[in-house]
């Protein structure tokens, strides 16, 4: 039996107070072998997000079957109010299903999908949002400024470069060299970028960004999650083409740009902690995140490509290399 009327029915509609959602999927089943330092890496990732996001950003943590100690830490962060939303899974449902499921429940215009081992640097949110706001056809932006992500460039970006709708040039960015080498070497490489190296720079109305982006951390327009991201579950624990299908490909199918920030604002940590990570986080704590503002995308900006988009990728990649000589950046 019900007595009275639910008072929520008389309340006004919800007014959204946030614009940007950051989603982290965490899988730490134990603290030994490969996972020995992963809990500490995750804590550094989370603390860096908290230190570098402004009042319009919210954080979601997806606990993908972590062990009890990690689960208790996540709950503590939620109770303290430093995390806006927590989703718990008793079993590991796979990275993509956990990530996309959480992203689709978000209401914010921009959604950042990040791995657990990314360390954010103050200024990343403003830099990413600046590109979305000022380059209208942007569909995805990464704060990791790599120069070897041309294989993640889509046909829409290359087409507009070839058609001169975007300005393109190979340009030296000395500030990026150290961060890029650290990024490469965090995967076990022994990489040293030459001082003469150049980055693939695009510009639109004076706003600069880099061509292409990796998917360890990527901010996307929310509408992509319902237009071009597959509806069916991935049912893959990790990798095996799932990132390509659920993150990389949807941007191209929506005929939007895939870009990176002009200078680097995020770092890959891997599964071991190092002193530089704490040093960078200490620098984050010395600064206050820049406040940004709400903005809207042009309605109908996403134009879903036909099934022949793969042909267009090959075609415009060929033209781009012929015109701009992809070897000139070495």
Structure description:
The chain has 330 residues and is an alpha/beta fold. The chain has one domain (17-329): Spore Coat Polysaccharide Biosynthesis Protein SpsA, Chain A (Alpha-Beta Complex). The protein has ten helices and twelve strands. The strands form two sheets. A ten-stranded mixed beta sheet has the order 3-2-1-4-10-6-11-9-8-7, sandwiched between helices. A two-stranded antiparallel sheet has the order 5-12. Helix 1 packs parallel to helix 9 and helix 5 (155-162) crosses helix 10. The protein is globular. It starts with 19 loop residues before the first strand and ends in a 6-residue tail after the last helix. The model has no long low-confidence stretch (mean pLDDT 89).
Keywords, please?
330 residues, alpha/beta, Spore Coat Polysaccharide Biosynthesis Protein SpsA, Chain A, 10-stranded mixed beta sheet, two-stranded antiparallel sheet, 10 helices, 33% helix, globular
SSE topology:
Blueprint: E1 20-26, H1 38-52, E2 57-64, H2 68-80, E3 85-89, H3 95-104, E4 110-114, E5 118-120, H4 124-134, E6 138-142, H5 155-162, E7 167-171, H6 177-185, E8 199-204, E9 207-211, E10 217-221, H7 224-227, H8 242-253, E11 257-261, E12 266-268, H9 275-284, H10 309-324
Parallel strand pairs: 1-2, 1-4, 2-3, 6-11
Antiparallel strand pairs: 4-10, 5-12, 6-10, 7-8, 8-9, 9-11
Helix pairs in contact: 1-9, 5-10
């Amino acid at each position: 039996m019900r007595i009275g009327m639910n008072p929520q029915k008389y309340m006004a509609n919800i007014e959204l107070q946030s614009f940007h959602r950051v989603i982290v999927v965490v899988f730490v089943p134990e603290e030994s072998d490969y996972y020995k330092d992963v809990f500490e890496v995750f804590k550094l990732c989370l603390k860096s997000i908290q230190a570098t996001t402004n009042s319009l950003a919210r954080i979601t943590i997806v606990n993908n079957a972590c062990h009890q100690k990690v689960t208790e830490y996540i709950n503590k962060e939620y109770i303290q109010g430093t995390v806006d939303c927590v989703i718990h899974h008793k079993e590991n449902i796979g990275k993509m299903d956990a990530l996309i499921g959480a992203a689709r429940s978000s209401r914010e215009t921009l959604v950042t999908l990040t791995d657990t081992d990314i360390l954010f640097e103050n200024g990343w949110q403003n830099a990413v949002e600046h590109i979305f706001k000022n380059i209208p056809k942007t569909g995805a932006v990464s704060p990791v400024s790599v120069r070897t992500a041309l294989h993640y460039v889509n046909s829409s970006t290359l087409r507009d470069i070839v058609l001169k709708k975007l300005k393109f040039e190979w340009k030296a960015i000395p500030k990026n060299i150290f961060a890029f080498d650290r990024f490469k070497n965090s995967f076990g490489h022994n990489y040293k970028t030459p001082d003469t190296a150049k980055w693939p720079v695009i510009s639109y109305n004076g706003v600069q960004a880099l061509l292409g982006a990796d998917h360890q951390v990527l901010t996307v327009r929310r509408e992509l999650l319902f237009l071009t991201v597959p509806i069916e579950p991935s049912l893959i624990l990790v990798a095996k083409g799932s990132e390509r299908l659920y993150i990389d490909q949807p941007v191209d199918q929506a005929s939007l740009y895939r870009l990176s920030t002009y200078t680097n604002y995020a770092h890959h940590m891997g599964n071991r902690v190092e002193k530089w990570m704490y040093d960078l986080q200490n620098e984050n704590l010395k600064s206050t995140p820049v406040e940004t503002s709400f903005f809207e995308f042009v309605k109908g900006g996403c134009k879903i490509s036909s099934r022949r988009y793969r042909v267009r990728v090959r075609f415009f990649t060929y033209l781009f290399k012929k015109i701009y000589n992809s070897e000139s950046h070495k």
